[in-house]
Amino acid sequence: MDFRGILDRLRATGAPGLLGHDLPRAADPKDKKDKGRGGDPFLWVEPAQLPAFLERCRDDERLRFELLIDLTAVDPSKDDPNLWVVVSLLSLAHRHRLTVKCALPKAAASLPSSVPVYRAAQWHERECGEMYGITFAGHPDPRHILLPEDWVGAPLRKDYVFPDEYHGISCK
Amino acid sequence: MVEAKTVETQTLPQSAPGEREFMLDVRTQDMEVNMGPQHPATHGVMRILVRADGEVCTGAQPHLGYLHRCAEKIGENVEWLQYLPYTDRYDYLAAMNNNLGYSMAVEKLMGIEIPRRALMIRTICAELNRIGSHLIAFGTYGLDIGAFTPFLYMFREREWMMALFEKICGARLTYSYIRIGGVFNDAPPGWLSEVERFCDTFEQKWQEYVDLLMVNHIFVQRTANIGVISRAMALDFGLTGPMLRGSGVDWDLRRDMPYELYAEIWKDGVFSIPLGRGEHGTLGDCWDRSYVRVMEMIESIKIVRWCLGAITPGPVIADIPKTLRVPAGEAYVGIENPRGELGHYVVSDGGKVAVRCRVRGPSFTNLAVLEELMPGALLADAVAIIGSTDIVVGETDR
Predict the structure, then answer these.
(1) What is the predicted pLDDT for the residue at A74?
(2) Are residues B368 and B227 in the same domain?
(3) Mean pLDDT, chain A cut into blocks of 10 residues (172 residues total)
(4) Are residues B244 and B367 in the same domain?
(5) A118 at the B interface (CB within 8 A)?
(6) Which of A59, A90, B124, B223 is an S-S bond match for A67, by CB 3.0 to 4.6 Å?
(7) Are both B59 and B176 inside the same structural domain?
(8) Which of A24, A74, A95 lies nearest to residue B347, judging by beta carbons?
């Protein structure tokens, strides 16, 4: 199924938390500042509803996204008040992919954990959480995964300030 | 290397002198054993905290991050082309495939058309690298569980493969050869015929590996019925590659979501997708995963041969500027790496540097299943289970 088909199916079945979609588009010739957008289409989903939405994607007979391929986040820019959490799904049965996005305010970056739906989310959420300072509520094991347990700050945020030293090791 | 510490001190019952030592020996209590960070079976710097009750594992907790080199942060700070050498360094056993995945993601955003000869060379290199990677995976797996000789044999063939890569790009491990828009340079004279000779030799040697290790009674005993991953569990944990196919799930991106030339190759009926069948034990056990890897090597040879037959002269790189400006947008590209789906999710705002350069390493996801596999396994099988996940720590930690 292509993106349009997936979107129609999700709308027809009233998928929880679906806010809208974003398609690649050409630049507007009248607006010089508009560069357009290339690449993949994606869906916007309400963060609080993300696990319920993923569950729907997984269990719907026509969609059947059996695999959670990736869960990560993006900090679009220093000035943007939001972070995006990006989930990539893959269906083996129907051979299609889907990208799902949630916008989270940087000041209160928290959303429910998707581990009950896909256990694959467990390590991805740990990594995403430590790198972007996002709290996944209800995560069974919210320790750091790649960073040391005492690392301060969220390194992949654009406003991250590199530390001068770590346990006496100079980071300059 | 392996240090044991008792976590729970039980109060022993009052006993006669001399009997205490005996009790210490036989009583069972949970022990925590550190495997790593420097352990030959972890194939890199990784620590697995194994909890064991006597000879039985009751839990395992992988501790990652010893090889974390901030690849994704670097990706947001260097230009698009400059990031390419960093891709070599996550799965350093399959650097060609990593180059390919990253290049394809950027190409998707830029909408570049790749010359056909470049696609052919890319496919040859990616498949040769898959063979090299599986040789290491299978060879070191034998080594882990006590078979030293096949490992050395496999290094002999891998050496040839690396010499081939050295001839085409000058590097033996970190190639940066597959570039955005094509490949760095054309194959030197005689290179393609040497690849053909490699294929001829490899097919014979491959049979030796099967005889020496794959159907070896000791190997079968050590791997069959060990570390069984069911189909449902494989899907739940998001496993990909041989880990998924070992559990009998018929999925290969090269066939099911074809990229580059694979649609054409598959249509010609060149290769097939080996699946675990539970031949010597249960479906999805360590033996099945090894079987898939071994069989994939010979399928890769078939693909290389197809390319050698179909390759025509022509340009090898599209016309791209030195400093890339990638159009605004975002793209996800997943390719079939030797270890599973390698995903690159790149976000651009139209500038010289990426906004986000996410790497979805198959080793990272595949390793997560360890926490589930280990409880209940014998301590002696721990190494067999870890080896069968075929992780590259450079990729789990990035």
Answers:
(1) 92
(2) yes
(3) 86 85 81 78 91 90 90 90 92 91 90 91 92 91 88 88 86 76
(4) yes
(5) yes
(6) A90
(7) no
(8) A74
Partner-chain contact B257 A147, CB within 8 Å: no
In this complex, do B328 and A67 lie within 8 Å of one another by their Cβ atoms? no
CA distance B162 to chain A (A): 31
Count of residues making up chain B = 398
Cβ atoms B161, B88 nearer than 8 A: no
In angstroms, the CA B347 to CA B345 distance is 7
Identify the helix (H) or strand (E) that includes residue A58: helix A50-59
Is residue B176 domain-shared with residue B228, that is, in the same domain? yes
Which chain B residues are within 8 Å of A69, Cβ to Cβ? 238, 240, 334, 341, 343, 360
φ/ψ of A120, rounded to 5, equals -60, -20
Q: Which of B34, B86, B395, B68 is nearest to A146 (CA)?
A: B68
Phi, psi values for residue B98, rounded to 5°: -65, -45
Tell me the sheet residues that pair with A104: A83
Same domain flag for B256 and B322: yes
Query: What CATH architecture applies to the domain A3-170?
Result: 2-Layer Sandwich (3.30)
| B397 in contact with chain A, both atoms CB, cutoff 8 A | yes
Rounded distance between C-alpha atoms, residue A51 and residue A59, angstroms: 12
Q: Structure pTM?
A: 0.87
CB A134 within 8 A of CB A111: yes
Interface confidence (ipTM) of the complex: 0.89
B328 contacts on A by Cβ (under 8 Å) = 35-38
Same-domain status, B160 and B262: yes
pLDDT tens track for B340-361: 999 999 999 888 898 999 999 8
CB-CB: which of B73, B350, B355 is closest to A76?
B355
Q: Which domain holds residue B42?
A: 2-63
Least confident of B36-40, B82-86, B135-139, B274-278: B36-40
